[in-house]
Design goal:
- The complex is a heterodimer of chains A (224) and B (465).
- Chain A is α/β, with parallel strands linked by helices.
- Chain A has helices spanning 4-14, 36-46, 58-71, 89-96, 108-113, 163-173, 214-223; strands spanning 50-54, 77-79, 100-102, 116-120, 123-125, 130-134, 149-155, 159-160, 179-183, 188-189, 197-198, 205-211.
- In chain A, strand 2, helix 4 and strand 3 form a beta-alpha-beta unit.
- In chain A, helix 3 (58-71) packs across helix 4.
- Chain A starts with a helix and ends with a helix.
- With 465 residues, chain B is α/β, with parallel strands linked by helices.
- The N and C termini of chain B lie far apart (58 Å).
- Classes of the chains: A alpha/beta (224), B alpha/beta (465).
- Chains A and B meet through helix 1, helix 5, helix 6, strand 9 and strand 10 of A and helix 2, helix 3, helix 4, strand 1 and helix 8 of B.
């Protein structure tokens, strides 16, 4: 049995002090991504996800949610209490007679039985069609993981250009949580005869709704 | 399709088994060429892939040159985040630690996401003998665990099996006929494994990169099984080779940009999971305990030697997909753990055995591996150095004498001229332009798998002038 100190001393013993190299300067290496929202949608579509660009109209958002729920299998909707979750979600579920579980109510058995999980995100990444999620409340791990359909509501302002930029933000803001996950489209595998299939363990169906919320915010401010 | 590989025997013997299996060859050929096509296509989405590879190699070299500092820092930051860390000098230390984690807590059911280092340390065998039932959850690993096969590719462990093979295997295991249909077979595995995910006491994962300044582990999967293994059970343990470290998130971003592109032709793998220790008080789910096992198991033998560049490896599998030898024989011809060019390099360095040592010869030295490598490991050059070491240890007296004679024959113009005149005379006498078999005991073996080029009069006389 070796201790940490012994282990590291053994490693040190193998290294030549004169051969130590400084960490290279990592300049801007990443691609530039103009037209972020369009690029995001094209990337997510290309990897089997469902992007939706939605304007400020509430009826448009409701229509998108209705279409997702109609196509989903039976079972409750598991939803976080994040700010960016559309207000139209609960009425859309009620209209369908679908139960809503507000995360983290219930238990794992109930979460696993949900047909749809709905969260928001820290950021969305245009270069890869990804969303970045944190595990701390009001978010959580199971919502985006256990149900077969995952819906992420992303305010357009949270769209960043590249993964490199997303990692700079994660480093700078260091969200206080045990897990940050970058979800890039649906769960997939080619392990059976090299044929691509979706939904192996994580959700096989991923919708990201990019919401242009600015005009609505202005209206709310004006009303107040 | 299973169990027919003799790892105590020779590469040639195992390669012979693979070459005689047309289904295996078709499966490996189609999967590797598709993966390589995807790799080349998606590398183009980078502004300058070649410069990025240079940068990635530089990052890996800098980390390796200061590995002691990084590991010390990682221990500090990981513990600061509430994680526990264990340094395992030997393979056995590592697998025993994981088994004790389970038995001390009365855990009898474990789920595992794909980890090559866990294959290296024989983790599943140790757990089974400690009474812990462990199930592989990567679909490919699940398939080969059922089949009793070792992995045949670093990132696609069941690459050697066709859809029909999988249907037959699942049908046997389930006791009813399942259709030869990929989505149906996947749905079957999903349902089986979902039960295990929700009930297991221990989740085991590998690590793609540990980030020393942040106390973070990065694990990537396409299926989401690593998210399951690191989110659902109350205890999570991650096992990593000690070299799999980067300093910070900027460095990680560079590595990930190349890992997905080089391995599967993806800009980013579907799930990139960053773990910062166990669940926080402000969280509703996640493991209560989070352990990290850092494994040496022969790696310090590589550090500080002329083979250190092999430790840059990020296990993308690109060198397998481009290798003309791997593409013909698949992974089982190599070693139970690592196959392809990187396997031929690191197996003999990690464990000293004649079986591993001869793998350096399982290469044409064409250099396709080196060209594909995203961290610029000079694989063909390392293979050549391993052959030199092999010859120094294993060459027989006859072989040495023959090579010495050969080298003397080429050392001066007169001797060279006499030698090639002899060669072209032999060619004229036999009427052969090349020799399919040389009529000598040792040289006869050399021509078993290749022809010896003949001498032409013009070439030899031109050289004489």
């Amino acid at each position: 049995m070796t201790s940490r100190a012994e282990f590291i001393a053994t490693v040190r013993g193998r290294l030549d002090d004169s051969a130590r190299k400084e960490t290279p300067d990592i300049a801007e290496w990443s691609v530039t991504v103009p037209n972020g929202a369009e690029r995001f949608c094209a990337e997510l579509l290309a990897i089997g996800g469902h992007p939706r660009l939605v304007g400020p109209s509430s009826s448009e958002l409701r229509a998108v949610l209705d279409s997702i729920l109609e196509a989903a299998g039976p079972g409750p909707v598991l939803v976080t209490d994040e700010d960016a979750i559309p207000h139209e979600l609960v009425p859309a579920c009620e209209a369908e007679g679908r139960e809503v579980i507000r995360w983290p109510d219930g238990n794992r058995g109930r979460w696993a039985a949900a047909a749809v999980g709905v969260t928001s995100c820290l950021w969305a990444i245009a270069e890869t069609g990804s969303v970045v999620l944190a595990s701390s409340l009001p978010g959580g791990r199971a919502v985006s993981l256990l149900p077969p359909v995952f819906v992420c509501a992303a305010p357009r302002a949270r769209l960043v250009a590249t993964t490199a930029e997303a990692f700079r933000l994660i480093a700078a803001e260091r969200p206080d949580c045990s897990n940050v996950v970058i979800v890039t489209g649906p769960s997939k595998s080619a392990d059976i005869g090299n044929e691509l299939v979706q939904g192996v363990h994580g959700p096989g169906e991923v919708h990201v709704i990019l919401i242009d919320e600015a005009p609505r915010t202005i209206r709310v401010a004006g009303d107040g | 399709m299973t169990g027919s590989y003799d790892y105590a025997g020779s590469f040639a013997g195992r390669a012979g088994v693979a070459l005689a299996d047309p289904k295996l060859r078709a499966a490996v050929a189609s999967a590797t060429s598709r993966a390589d096509g995807n790799r080349l296509a998606v590398l183009e989405s980078l502004a300058d892939a070649e410069s990025l590879k240079d940068l990635a190699a530089e990052i890996r070299d800098a980390v390796l040159s200061r590995l002691d500092v990084h590991l010390d820092m990682l221990a500090e930051t990981w513990e600061h985040n509430g994680g526990r860390i264990f340094f395992a000098a030997g393979a056995r230390d590592a697998s025993d630690y994981v088994a004790r984690l389970a038995t001390d807590r009365g855990i009898t059911s474990a789920i595992k996401s794909k980890s090559m280092v866990s294959e290296e340390i024989g983790l599943n065998e140790t757990l089974e003998s400690a009474g812990v039932d462990v199930v592989e959850t990567d679909l490919g690993e699940y398939i080969i665990q059922l089949a009793g096969d070792p992995p045949s590719h670093i990132i696609a462990p069941a690459i050697h099996m066709s859809k029909a093979d999988v249907a037959e295997l699942f049908s046997q295991s389930e006791g009813r006929a399942l259709p030869e249909d990929a989505p149906a077979l996947m749905a079957y595995a999903r349902a089986k494994l979902r039960e295990r995910f929700l009930s297991a006491g221990l989740g085991i994962s590998g690590v793609n990169f540990a980030v020393s300044e942040e106390g973070a582990l990065c694990i990537v999967t396409n299926e989401g099984n690593a998210r399951m293994c690191t989110s659902l059970p109350p205890v999570h343990v991650a096992v990593m080779g000690m070299e799999r470290v980067v300093g910070n998130f900027d460095e990680l971003a560079v590595m990930l940009a190349l890992l997905g592109r080089s391995g599967t032709g993806q800009k980013l793998t579907q799930y990139t999971t960053l773990l910062f220790g166990p669940r926080r008080a402000s969280e509703a789910d996640g493991p209560e305990e989070s352990h990290l096992v850092v494994v040496d198991a022969g790696r310090t033998n590589i550090l500080g030697t002329e083979y250190q560049e092999a430790l840059r490896c990020i296990r993308c599998g690109a060198c397998l997909n481009v290798c003309p030898v791997y593409r013909q024989v698949g992974g089982h011809a190599y070693d139970p753990v690592y196959s392809g060019p990187i396997g031929a390099v690191i197996n003999p360095l990690l464990h000293d055995s004649p079986q591993a040592a001869e793998l350096a010869h399982a290469s044409t030295l064409c250099g396709a591996c080196t060209e594909a490598c995203p961290v610029r490991i000079p694989l063909d050059d390392l293979l050549l150095r391993l052959r030199r070491d092999y010859a120094a240890r294993h060459a027989s007296v006859t072989e040495r004498a023959l090579y010495a004679a050969w080298s003397r024959a080429w050392a001066g113009p007169r001797r060279y001229g006499a030698f090639s005149a002899l060669g072209s005379l032999a060619g004229r006498l036999t009427g052969e332009r090349s020799f399919k078999r040389l009529p000598l005991p040792v040289l006869g073996r050399w021509t078993k798998g290749r022809s010896f080029p003949g001498f032409t009069r013009s070439a030899s006389s031109k050289e004489k002038r």
